Design the sequence.
């Protein structure tokens, strides 16, 4: 399958996933004529809401080559009641920037490593692939021992879903897993020329049923502040807010993530007491 056909298929699959999650009543259809064979809205109903023909919308979902203006795509997004993140993602699928596979950095400047090392909280630098390329010792003690892993193993998405430690010790694993997969899918679409993303998602889906279920939902979310609630074996219950700074020195592929203790919890003291013992 050519690159252009693949992009059209991805767009079609995304539209289908958003249509199937929307109940008729949510879209203003109070009566249903005939039995619904699939969940969500019918293609004809989306077409009515978007002001396009049923055939035209069907061809879009099927990944056929049809000409679509931005106005039409935005109208379909409104019909499907997409969130702001989802609308932005739809526009990127409609008119992606063909940049090819980007060059990946394997290390950061010593000055940035020094900044990370001086932080009192767990911190690391990762790229869109979620490959961790720099970290401090607090991150090794609280999150996972990055220093003992090879470059190929140090991939957050795989660590998070394949290491049972997180499933057993994170108090908000389900919520964080859904958020992580939605962000990862947005990275996959943004890095359209990098086959690593598709191959990694396929391997994870084959190895982990939870990832597979979440991946099939086609949810999209841009990276934002998130919570990381951990029952740490040595430090006790910890509550962090993960703050991510995207684009380090104009490199949009790099993300600087700091696990900041949530105000009003005993996390900061527990973290300090534990790190004082082990570092």
Sequence:
């Amino acid at each position: 399958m050519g690159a252009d056909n693949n992009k059209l298929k991805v767009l079609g699959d995304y539209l289908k996933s958003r249509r199937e999650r929307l109940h008729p009543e949510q879209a203003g259809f109070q009566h249903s004529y005939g039995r619904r064979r699939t969940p969500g809205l019918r293609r004809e109903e989306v077409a009515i809401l978007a002001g396009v023909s049923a055939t035209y919308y069907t061809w879009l979902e099927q990944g056929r080559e049809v000409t679509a203006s931005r106005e039409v795509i935005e109208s379909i997004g409104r019909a499907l009641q997409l969130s702001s993140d989802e609308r932005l993602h739809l526009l990127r699928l409609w008119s992606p920037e063909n940049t090819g596979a980007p060059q990946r950095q394997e290390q950061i400047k010593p000055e940035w490593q020094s900044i990370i090392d001086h932080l009192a909280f767990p911190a690391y630098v990762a790229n869109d692939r979620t490959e961790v390329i720099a970290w401090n010792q607090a991150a090794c003690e609280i999150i996972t021992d990055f220093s003992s892993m090879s470059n190929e193993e140090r991939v957050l998405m795989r660590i998070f879903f394949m290491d049972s430690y997180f499933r057993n010790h994170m108090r908000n694993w389900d919520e964080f897993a859904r958020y992580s997969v939605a962000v990862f899918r947005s990275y996959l679409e943004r890095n359209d020329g990098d086959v690593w993303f598709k191959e990694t998602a396929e391997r994870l889906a084959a190895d982990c049923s939870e990832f597979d279920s979440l991946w099939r939902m086609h949810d999209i979310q841009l990276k934002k502040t998130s919570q990381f609630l951990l029952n740490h074996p040595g430090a006790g219950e910890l509550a962090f807010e993960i703050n991510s700074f995207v684009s380090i020195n104009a490199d949009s592929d790099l993300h600087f993530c700091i696990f900041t203790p949530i105000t009003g919890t005993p996390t900061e003291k527990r973290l300090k007491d534990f790190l004082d013992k082990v570092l």
The longest strand covers residues 236-248.
